[in-house]
Amino acid sequence: MNPQFLQIVMMGVIALVVGGLTIFILQRFMSDKASRSRRMNRIVNEKEVQKANLQKLHKDKRRKQVQAMLREVEEETRRRKKGQRPSLKKMLRQAGLKVSPVQYYLFALGSGVILGLVTLVLSRNPFVGLGGLLVGGLGVPYWLLKFLRKRRELAFLTLLPETIDAMVRSIKAGLPLNEALKLVAKEMPDPIGVEFREVVEGQRLGIPLDQGFQRMYDRMPLPEVNFLSIVIGIQQQSGGNLSEVLNNLAKVLRDRKGMRLKVKALSQEAKAGASIIGALPVLLLAAISVLNPEYIQPLFNTITGKFMLVGAVVWMSTGIIVMYKMINFKV
Fold first, then answer.
1. Which of 64, 98, 241, 248 gives the lowest tally of CB atoms within 10 Å of its CB?
2. How many CB atoms lie within 10 A of CB 228?
3. Is the pLDDT of residue 15 over 60?
């Protein structure tokens, strides 16, 4: 055979072998690379699935914690509603009065005696004097206590959104919640300051923060304080962005205040009409007594007139109570 032909054949065989080996190595390398890529993608997908499952588990756990917290709050609210009215000592504290129940009873006794003597001297009727004694001993102190309590709650409610805003600014500035509470307790006027000082002092004594706000709600039984207590309690148990939650709470409180003022403005016409209707008989009776006393005397001197007077008082009182219930909107 021709040696040159043999060389060409050998070179062709060598080229085929080298090409085959090259293709085999490249295919193996590419397959290994694709396999590694598939394994990496599978691992990444598994990690993403695990991360999504962990996030879902965390959300479910947090949701369960929030639901459990809300159930506890609802049960506590129902228990309080089923319970008796607050004691005199608690009412005095809610009104901001630093007096004991014994001092309150002494004031009620003195008020009753004074008003009873005044009505007895003016009317010269023992039954009227007894009525003045009961009104002065039971009614006037209780009405005064309710007035002071309502005024203190209104002052607290007016300052609460600004207080929450101050807490939000402090937290965004980097202060922890405890320091924000101390700052509010120091800077805000009473009754906000004194109530938050009670919470701060409770923390120093080892009382948890959520229980401290629950005690604030006992001293200041307002729905807005209950909202704040719920927010703090949930944040303490499940975490979260406290500044954002408090900011939303402040917005809700301002919206509630605006709605309350709007309802009050819309009901002023009805309240004015009810006041005029309730006061008209009394003013008319006083005017007739001054202008023509003889005309009105049988209403007080005869048995029939006294029965009519008692009936008129009962029916007028019933009408005033019904009108009060109709126009007294609570928001």
1. 98
2. 22
3. yes
d(CA 111, CA 143) in angstroms, rounded, equals: 12
pLDDT > 70 in the chain, percent: 75
Dihedral of alpha carbons 42, 44, 48, 51, sign = positive
Closest Cα partner for 165 from 184, 179, 152, 182? 184
pTM of structure: 0.63
Distance CA 69, CA 238 (A): 10
Local confidence band at 17 (pLDDT 50, 70, 90 cut-offs): low
